[in-house]
TrEMBL record:
It comes from Bradyrhizobium oligotrophicum S58. It holds the Pfam family DUF1223. This is DUF1223 domain-containing protein. The lineage of its organism: Bacteria, Pseudomonadati, Pseudomonadota, Alphaproteobacteria, Hyphomicrobiales. PANTHER family: LIPOPROTEIN LIPID ATTACHMENT SITE-LIKE PROTEIN, PUTATIVE (DUF1223)-RELATED, PTHR36057.
Length: 264
């Protein structure tokens, strides 16, 4: 046999190299990033931009959760939801600190950093990966007709946590806003992956489980995506993100997702 590789051998190795390169593109996400933001916060637009950049990374699930506690500053946030404010405060209680601010990014349910600091967010992703539980449970989504099919895998043998809650978020992937008053008065801002609805599907106890969710339960005007996550703890004391997945949805309604606040 000749010591020089044949054309077929080189071609086979080339195919193997291609397979190795594309494999990470289908990997499970490494992080869920929740940005608590506000249209009435002058420090938030840089963080909203960073979240938009992260939203383009297939290894990250990035969510905007606009809060309502700055509404008294002269502009009522048109996307804010009191449930997001409650969630941010619940994180603070679970961590045992009083760190509630905007823009605040909570990474994998465990570590919080300033939302405009991309380097700090990446550091928090690495930090939360050290424990072994964060983002270790595979979650799968698919849309079949008028249903969203959700499946959550079983816990692996090394996983310390074998319980959690399963939630589905309906999201609007791009929402342009014109701010009329307050600290961002006159600015045209863009928000990414804005959570527009939350629905608890059930509990996960370490065994595989699945749901078929009618799209009418999560659809609303402007919604064009969905995220399902499995999280340790409870709504009142949220813990580590154990797994998550994203899926596009048919746009609910033909109206634009653009939102404008009322004139005051």
């Amino acid at each position: 046999m000749s010591g020089q590789m044949s054309w077929w051998t080189r071609a086979a190795l080339g195919v193997c190299a291609v397979i190795v390169v594309v494999r990470p593109a289908t990997a499970d996400p490494r992080a869920v990033i929740e940005l608590f933001t506000s249209q009435g916060c002058s420090s938030c637009p840089p963080a909203d931009k960073v979240l938009g950049e992260l939203a383009r990374d297939p290894s990250v699930i990035a969510l905007s959760l606009p809060i309502d506690y700055w509404d008294y500053l002269g502009w009522k946030d048109t996307l804010a939801d009191s449930r997001f404010t409650a969630r941010q405060r619940a994180y603070s209680r679970a961590r045992g600190d009083r760190e509630v601010y905007t823009p605040q990014a909570v990474v994998n349910g465990s570590v919080h950093v300033i939302g405009s600091d991309r380097e700090a967010i990446e550091g928090a992703i690495e930090e939360t990966a050290q424990g072994g539980a964060a983002m270790s449970v595979p979650v799968r989504l698919s849309v079949d007709g008028q249903e969203l099919n959700v499946s959550v895998a079983a816990a692996n043998d090394q996983m310390p946590r074998r319980h959690g809650e399963v939630w589905v978020c309906s999201i609007s992937r791009v929402v342009p806003i014109s701010v009329g008053r307050g600290e961002n008065s006159g600015r045209d801002l863009t928000y990414y992956n804005v959570v527009r609805g939350l629905l608890k599907l059930g509990d996960w106890t370490g065994a595989p489980v699945s749901w078929n969710v009618p799209l009418e339960k999560i659809a609303r005007e402007g919604v064009d995506g969905t995220v399902v996550y499995v999280q340790d703890g409870s709504r009142d004391r949220p813990g580590a993100m154990l797994g998550a997945a994203f899926s596009e949805l048919p746009l609910a309604g033909r109206a634009s997702a653009t939102a404008r606040g009322p004139e005051r």
